[in-house]
Predict the structure of Integrase.
Amino acid sequence: MDFSGFEMGRGEFFAHTREPCFTLSDGKVQANTACIRKMADVDHIQILINQTTHKLVIRACEEDDLFSLPWCRTKDGIRTPRAISGPVFIMKVCALMGWNPDNRIRMLGKFYRANEDLIFLFDMDGAEEFERRRDENGKRKTSRTPHFAASLENVFGPLFTEHKKELGFNIHQGFAVMSVREGRLKPREENPLKGAEEHAGDHHGHRPEEEPPADS
């Protein structure tokens, strides 16, 4: 069958559990439990940003690698996500994307394997933005209904033919390693993920069914 002209329903428009997501909130960034479980032996990551394509990558790395970050905690053999403080990083990303840094931002990701590299790829153009406001008593409230980029208002998702092309793209071309704590960028000199292929069965195109955290 010819699927020309067909759009794929974006995963962000559906609810599902156990899907990788990355959140920016209250000056901190955090991967969810689904990410931690998929990279069960990884304790440190790098965060890479492509300012042209608006893609964000979480890459498994060693503790002594450039700008490595501890992304989880382990207690009694159980690994849980760690919130990483990075207010400057969040301000820079929000400036790039036109987001309000006071809001909660959540991105849905895909898991990839390429040679010895393990990564999660997040499309920042498809991020969900949960608005925060103060009520009459001054208590902060987070909306449970996300806002999406204006470019997604009249579409269901990418064209099927364009999505197939995207699976063969060069993930790290044009990326820079980001220092979350200092907000600095350093271009990558190597390209270990050329020809990366999506790991079969690791992405179903659904949104993590998570509620915004309680506000104080």
